[in-house]
Design brief:
- Strands 1-2 form a two-stranded antiparallel sheet.
- Strand 1 and strand 2 form a beta hairpin.
- With about 375 residues, the chain is mainly α.
- It starts with a helix and ends in a 12-residue tail after the last helix.
- Helices cover about 75% and strands about 0% of the residues.
- The longest helix is centred in the N-terminal third of the chain and has 30 residues.
- It has a domain of about 260 residues.
Length: about 375
């Protein structure tokens, strides 16, 4: 039996008792790859100048991470609930605290961290409190917290989304088409804002579901048609691999063309540039296809399976903590740059960020406030051996 046949017949999932949706091991690897790219794009941004065309060329394709996360969120929520009725109150009570609690905890932490380090200087206690309130409303306490704010919006809208998917059964392609047209409109508005619309207004849209609605809905629709889409991905891995290479090349070509025409590199690589939409869709599909191949060959209890499972269990915690680790490494960046230069600076800081992040996560996971700080339950403290 070929790998493709095995994947189609057994789509890398484990049936679970109690009527729960099957466990999809490929989602663990999808999550791991995406989080690794999140850390990479933040490190590249922290270790290079905004005017560096080469660094922005690396960042450009890595912007897929936010879209991949929201596609994954939509997929997981619908896949887990597609066979049962969703009671809004029960769903919100179960889901919202999982994100809201870490959001509040880390927003307050980074607000305080910014005051202590001088990153933010509001000038008075009243101004500080205003700043904290603004950060809580906008997700602006640190550069990654918008994701949690938007995730909470997805949770709030999820019961309505399920009703919409069921009401439009058989017409999901038209639902996606309308959402896609709206997505293009939103990105055009954010990239080429009309006269009279301030940049501040545009930046506030980052913390809303509007720029991510198409990807969330796409993940949700895929979950409703999981077996069909999964089988298609298994049969067309070579096609998706070829599309990945071709669209990546076209994306980079367009980026450099835009830079050479006079656009500032950081603007040309902005994550809401409309030309990136085909790339986002392609890379998400390609990573899923790659993950299904791995899942089909996965051996329970093997070193690779244990590593992916361990990392997936800590992925959300790593997401929450890695900006702190990168900030703590900030003072070392000039010294590393002086000794090693580019691109080794980014490589060294990337590896150091991963190591420091994991160390911090392992400590936090063993503290009484683990759920608030890492989004995961507390682990049993490591017992000392004689």
């Amino acid at each position: 039996m070929t790998t493709a046949q095995a994947t189609l017949e057994t789509p890398a999932r484990v049936t679970r008792p109690g009527g729960k949706a099957p466990y999809l091991h490929q989602i663990d690897l999808f999550r791991l790859v995406t989080f690794a790219c999140v850390i990479l794009i933040h490190v590249v941004g922290a270790t290079n100048y905004a005017s560096d065309a080469g660094a922005n060329a690396v960042e450009t394709p890595l912007h897929f991470t936010r879209e991949a996360f929201f596609a994954l969120t939509g997929f997981v929520l619908v896949f887990q609930n597609r066979g049962r009725e969703v009671a809004a109150g029960d769903f919100w009570r179960r889901r919202l605290p999982l994100v809201a609690t870490p959001y509040l905890a880390w927003s307050m932490f980074f607000w305080a961290y910014g005051l202590v380090t001088g990153e933010q200087q509001p000038g008075s206690l009243e101004a500080s409190m205003r700043l904290l309130l603004t950060d809580l409303v906008t997700g602006g306490a640190w550069y990654h917290l918008y994701f949690l704010l938007v995730t909470m919006q997805v949770y709030l809208l999820f019961p309505v989304l399920m009703k919409l998917l069921r009401a439009t059964e058989g017409k999901h392609k038209w639902l996606l088409l309308g959402s896609g047209v709206a997505q293009v409109g939103v990105t055009l508005f954010m990239t080429y804002q009309p006269f009279g619309v301030s940049y501040e207004t545009i930046t506030h849209l980052y913390g809303t579901i509007l720029p991510y609605q198409f990807y969330t809905l796409s993940g949700a629709v895929v979950a409703m048609h999981f077996e069909t889409v999964h089988a298609w991905a298994g049969r067309h891995r070579l096609l998706l691999g070829g599309a990945f290479v071709a669209v990546l090349a076209g994306t980079e070509w367009y980026y450099f063309r835009t830079v050479h025409s006079g656009t500032f590199p950081q603007v040309a690589s902005d994550p809401f540039q409309p030309y990136l939409i085909p790339w986002f869709l392609t890379v998400i599909a390609a990573i899923y296809a790659f993950a299904t191949r791995w899942a089909a060959r996965r051996r329970e209890g093997s070193r690779g399976a244990r590593l992916v499972s361990w990392a997936a269990n800590r992925s959300f915690s790593i997401f929450l903590v890695h900006p702190l680790a990168l900030a703590l490494l900030g003072p070392a960046i000039p010294h590393v740059a002086e000794r090693f230069g580019a691109p080794w600076l980014s490589v060294i800081i990337y590896l150091a960020t991963i190591v420091l992040t994991v160390l911090i996560v392992e400590v936090l996971r063993r503290l009484p406030g683990s759920r608030a700080l890492t989004g995961r339950p507390r682990l049993a403290p490591v017992k000392a051996t004689a």
